[in-house]
Amino acid sequence: PYGKTCTNCSRVKYKCIYRTNGDGCERCYRLKKQCHPSTSIRKRKNPPHTKTSELEDRVESLASIVRSQGQVLHLQDGKSSDQPHTGPVHLHTPNSNTGSGSHIIGTETLISTDEQIIVSDNRISLPITSYVSCYNIQDATAEAQLHIFRQFFIPVFPFVYIPAKTSASTLRLQKPFLWLVIMSLTTKSTAQQLAMGESIRTTMADSVARGSEKSLDVLLGIICYLGWFHYHKKDDFFLSMWTQIAISMTFSLGLHKSAPEPREENDEGQFSSALIGYPPQKHVSAFRTIEERRTVLAAWIMASTVWISIRKVQPPRWTIYLESCLQILGEEKESEHDDLLITQVKCHLIMGQITYPIVDPEISPQSRPPYFIKAILLQLKELKHNLPPQLSTNITAHLHIHSTEILAREASIHRPAQPLPATPNLSRLESLNALMASISQWLSVFDTIPTAARIGTSLQIAAQFSHCAVLGFRLCTLVEPGWDTEYAKQRINVLDVLDESARAFDELHALHGLVDDAKNGSGLVFKAPRLIRAMRANFA
């Protein structure tokens, strides 16, 4: 029988068969050996893995990490370490830098034990509030920065509505991550802006990527970061990555679709999570708020902007639900800027018709037939005709409309045949003139932006400016039968436009009292004039 082999048979790995009279086994009897049964050493099965044991393992992992890094738990009221502790816990690393309050890593952070500390891959993932707590910005300074954001940033990209009665301290409590991104954009110190930018990326890596933190606050902070991405990172890889994170979080929060229908009381399956209690269920609202609808539209705009700019991240498919969000936002507006957001969405929908249908990457977007371009221009004409009265003089709205027209005009121009024909192509010259007129209109509107307001220049407008500068330079240097480059330079003098933009940024830091950090790197406002003049040197 299994587990009762004698020692002799076990040693030679022979099948052990006991005799019927119980006097040893057949082999030992035949060989006239003393038969001794071996000791049974049967492995036991591991106990079943439970949620309790998993939590105990995580607690032990956390304790081992704290001990290995030499971290000390400071207890209040002189309590000994073997007594239960319910107050806040101070985590302090030996290499902390207490000389500056502008960095998160290496500083002493106050963490409430009521907050969730996530341990994953033997690393600690702290709640977002712990990353924000080290920035002790005075209330008056925070209020001034929030005012700048309301005055110069939101009117350019109204992705969020912050009521006038909402103070900076209240916003910090309600939406800490969004507060951190706003403060990083509006701070006057380049050194603090760089430190906050690093804190934002650390928060994303620790709490979002590793800790699976997802909330409307985090999504709004990501959209805000993307909306003025040129203030922080300028690499296309990071821009694509942050856009993908925003899209993923939109789907994780379920904002891309209607709110789920309420369940019936007895509508629970045998293995329903509501019955077995795992995974833990969060309360899901039975309806979508205006803030949620505005947020999903803003995330879609940023995905479309990145796609049009670098052609690497295609936005999610436009659905009936997104169309309903657009309609409801127009009917139940909370902010005076909601009409501008709606106009931006409509412009991106028109631009999407030019760029999205391309399946073969070898086919250039500049291969659109005339009837297609005519249909696009008719949609744009209808959009301008139905523009709300309050947007009739809105600079941002007209910049987006003219930028959409530029993209359509550009798509109507086919590449010239090689070698160039001896006679002018009148149809092509007409398209070139129409494109030149659209660029001239965009630059004229851009020139009306007050110098102080250029601090809020969004990623969308910055991309449009670069696009117009490149197209304008090509038109001014185009060699083609019948094309007058001197006339093009009179209509759109790109060099003068770049000179004026550099001068405006030179004045901008003085108007807002910005302070540069020459040691760790210059901020956007200080680098912009140098970059624009470098572009001009390449064009000259």
TrEMBL record:
Signal peptide: none
GO molecular function, one term: zinc ion binding
Cell location: Nucleus
This protein's UniProt keywords: DNA-binding, Nucleus, Transcription, Transcription regulation
InterPro entries tied to this protein: prtT, Zn2-C6_fun-type_DNA-bd_sf
Gene Ontology CC terms: nucleus
Location, primary (coarse class): nucleus
PANTHER family documented for this protein: FINGER DOMAIN PROTEIN, PUTATIVE-RELATED, MISCELLANEOUS ZN(II)2CYS6 TRANSCRIPTION FACTOR (EUROFUNG)-RELATED
Protein name listed in UniProt: Zn(2)-C6 fungal-type domain-containing protein
Species the sequence originates in: Lojkania enalia
Lineage: Eukaryota, Fungi, Dikarya, Ascomycota, Pezizomycotina
